[in-house]
Amino acid sequence: MTDGSDTLRTNNEQSLTTPANASTPAKSPTAHPATISQPTVGDAIPQFVAGDFSQRQAMLSDWPGSVESLDSLVELIANDELYQGNGGQTYLLNAEDQLFTYPEKKETSDWPSDLSQITLTNTLRSALIFGQAKVKLESDKPAQRLQAVEILANNIDQVDPAIITAAAANEDNTKVQKALAALQARIDFKNGDLPTQIAAVNLLADSDSPQVLVDIESALAADNVDPTLEAALIDARDSVARRIQISTWTGHIFTGMSTASILLLAALGLAITFGLLGVINMAHGELIMIGAYTTYMVQNAFQAYMPDMAGWYLLAAIPAAFLVSAIIGMIIERIVIRPLYGRELETLLATFGVSLILMQLVRMIFGAQNVEVSNVAWLSGAYQVSSSLVLPYNRIAIIVFTVIVVALLVYLLNKTRFGLFIRAVTQNRQMARAVGIPSARIDMMAFGLGSGLAGMAGCALAQVGNVGPDLGQTYIIDTFLVVVVGGVGQVWGAVLAALGLGVSGTVLEIGIGAVLAKIVLLVLVILFIQKRPQGLFALKGRFVE
Description:
The protein is mostly helical and 545 residues long. The protein has 21 helices and 6 strands.
């Protein structure tokens, strides 16, 4: 850090305690300029790009735009996407070497002869750190103020304690107050006298921050540590390490639950078709893939014809994925599976052939490479429970979505006439036909329902993984394991099996690695099936066939 940056840091620290005019929030641009809409009020990025060094320094020290536009500036510079043209114009250059004007966000082929990238010197970087913290501390949103505390915590050696004192005096949010108190304790621990250090260590014992643990362990490794302080440090270290471990395992369990939700979404449709028709549908994974590609097509349609609504494409993609996969599933049942009922080996081979055909069709239409399905803005980011526990919004949404789908499916199967027919045909097909239930039509509609559920699984998977022709092959084996362990045709069995396989698989991967975890899990499933061939829940009813 240069001398100039130290002077600037002092100015910035003082400015953090000076009220600033509230700014109008603006939508933050994403890292992919081609999908960004028109700029909103509070975007001062073009002014920053056109300014000279002193003007940029002054802007960063007292940002005139919105907090969202400052976050966008940080993101664009970090991604090496912000450029300046000959006359001071602002451009965005993405990883595909596509150039966009800013703020219009329109692709241009008229490249300036002297296109220069916007970078930060140490002085400007220091100004940006404290300027961003200032803007966020003055925000009326607690989440923004928490981010400001995190920025200051990452630069703790440069923070004036007066900033923390002033911010804490005006803070009314409990979570932000706790974060400020922890930051103040870290500062006191580094710079205070012995009684102050001991009091700070006792306060930090309630933290679960990995950085706090590093600070404590560094202090314990020092020479000539006071015995009283050393005892407090050991107690604090054990407490912080225990809290971090609890947060870590909570995160692992959450990851396992999200994995279980994905498995359950993929297995629900197969549980219905396998339980009703007795068909081992090897094309089920490709129906998941079709749902993911339908999501991709809906996204492109929104970007091309309704760019202002592009951020909400997912709401239209869910029913679209269900309908497309359901229609294709009914066609498969009508043409391929129906002539082969009662011939399990032939249906297995036929549906395997269908899966190969569907994969090749996708490769011919979309190419062999993965396609990009962007996360919607309202599912981007994560909810920070604590310093060591962060839950991504997209995985939270998948868990909630799975719960809703299961609830609707249970209602459909148990509270509707269609569900009654499905249960009747599943339990005793001949008796169902005898009382007038059109079993052939129920077969087709149930297969369509199962295929539609697979399509919705593909829609959800598009938000957390890659979308490519081999997407279905990744989940088909685990899907069959869920169905077999849960019990053929049993929704609640599939729920419990998915939870068990998802969480246990995640835990095993942590301890022994992904490959060995798969092997151990498969062995456990085989042993379980040997003990209980019918799965967790067995079908009840008198089978005539």
